[in-house]
Write a structure and sequence with these properties.
The complex is a heterodimer of chains A (364) and B (345). With 364 residues, chain A is an alpha/beta fold. Helices cover 42% and strands 9% of the residues of chain A. In chain A, helix 1 (34-59) packs parallel to helix 11 (300-323) and helix 4 (106-114) packs across helix 11. Chain B is α/β, with parallel strands linked by helices and 345 residues long. The chains are: A alpha/beta (364), B alpha/beta (345).
Amino acid sequence: MLLTHSGEYVQLLTPRGERVDAPGFDPWVADIGSAELRSLYEDMLISRRLDTEATALQRQGEIGLWPPLLGQEAAQVGSAHALRQSDFVFGSYRENAVAYCRGVDLTTMISVWRGNANAGWNPYDISMAAPAIIIGAQTLHAVGYAMGCDFDASDDISIAYFGDGATSQGDVNEAMVFAASYAAPVIFFCQNNQYAISEPVGVQATKPIADRAPGFGIPSIRVDGNDVLAVFAATAIAADRARSGNGPTFIEAVTYRMGPHTTSDDPTRYRSDDELAEWRAKDPLDRVERYLTRIGALDDTETARISEHSDTVARELRAAIRALRPPEPLSFFDNVFAEPNRHLARQRSQHEAYLASFDGGELS
Amino acid sequence: MTEQATAGAVRTLTLSKSINEGLRRALTDDDKVVVMGEDIGELGGVFRVTDGLKAEFGPQRVIDTPLAEAGIIGTAVGLAYRGYRPVCEIQFDGFIYPGFDQIVAQVAKLHARTNGDVRMPITIRVPFGGGIGSVEHHSESPEAYFAHTAGLRVVTCSNPQDAYSMLREAIASDDPVLFFEPKRRYWTKGEVDLEHVPDQSMERARVLTSGTDITLVAYGPLVPTALDAAAAASEDGISVEVIDLRSLQPVDFDAVAASVRVTGRLIVTHEAQRFGGMGAEISATITERCFEFLESAPERVTGFDTPYPPAAFEDHFLPDMDRILDAVDRSMGRRNSLSEWRFDG
């Protein structure tokens, strides 16, 4: 059932920017001409720009924390573009390039990291669930959602994004059992970015992670996660399988978290400069840029346009943060329940009286 | 009670059959309701509560799941995202812990963390409590964990009519509900009005016997025990007001406080361990609200702070009528088992 052989991974675009044949995968990117590839490149570049901007904004004290996705742009952008907008995404906190591709409102995305909200965007606006912070929990949600698609006789599917660390969680393993048993139309998309905070992937798995899925009865594909074309092809294959009633597929996108786990982390304590340099040579953007330049699809005009676009998005992000106002103090009592709750209403009322007891009417 | 509540709709049913009828009605009325759990399909559940439902509604409405509680709850979350209204069965109280993270970290919080954009209308049915002579992990009362968790409603029924109507209300609720079923009362019979319309009364406590000396709060399996104790006390000239709490989150403190303002005395009984339990919360809150009305300190008659013991010991562990009556004596300032008690430890 393994669609790729153990230990190998699918690559369509080498780090030097050469397009190589990958039988079985090439047809799935046949529709990606130079304009489409340039568009994927643009989304990757903007994702990187948003990511570095957010990191800078954290350093400047505008937001409290940021989980960089630097290095994982191809894995996220390539997979996101192989989905339909009506498909539903269940991700972790690092899938912000996926959210960007699905049209997230930057203000709602960043409000979480400013400490104004727990989950940010309305999931139904972009068909993307509230980010899961408990590692791996979202994989079960994706499977349940996919079961619902099946019950509805819809050809919508769901996708679960998670990391190499999550594969050790019981939830992820239970998710694969449920998905296999019900042939749920779901994609398990594992970004193996080599680290779970400080722990190298060898702590989670002594064999390629993709090798696990067939044991659950789920075919798996291992791809170069820094190759946007390979990721797109693998996700398109998995989506097609799900839509055709063939159930779940597991994708291991082999990539690298070039930045820290979050802005609070210090990766120099657990990995070497040499390792980082090795992966920098496999950068997901560089290879597309080299390829597009070689085939004459990325001239100075296009480069300038894309650069200007990314400047605009970065400015929008900065403006969005600066426009955020502190939330109403009592609003954290709202929405604990969908229906009125007398106990909580009473507690809120007491806290309101407490705030009103200060001069000026409110604790500042 | 509606005009339709004619004799034809009133049937004498066991508590477990009432739940079965409640599920059947919910599955019939709303095609987004799905029932899921271990052994609930072909077998009809280990207590036969879901008997016949799979045959009637099919395997996509009544789902035999893999043996994984986190999986049951986690996939229910995904189904709720998709617009479904899952009713999950946890086979026994002590088996809920593998699903605990999904319940307290996901189900309970998703409505709040999405500012109300995502609703989690999930009902989690849990047979709970002891008294059936079973092996360990089959007799526990974990309700306080869930009552402590913000975002969950927690209820329990004590009779067939409540089992039917509260379950229908729980399933109709847009909030997640832990629905605790007193498993040793599954075979209790009573009249059930099957046309009872869900009416948002689930969170109201019910005064079962009015009294003037002591307020006795019970829920789930101990409600009949409390009624027995009240009857015995009345022979002794003590008037006990028994309240069936029904909802454990939120608690109907207004009803309990109204009663204590009359009686001046409070006893709370439950099977669960005492420390940090429902009795502690009710005693504390009623003391805060009714301090000046209290004639004596609130009493708790509960399980002990030990693991639920092997079946040979459970008559000692479980509160019974005599232990409640002993607390009645203490509450009334009469001679009781602790009158001469000293502890030098």
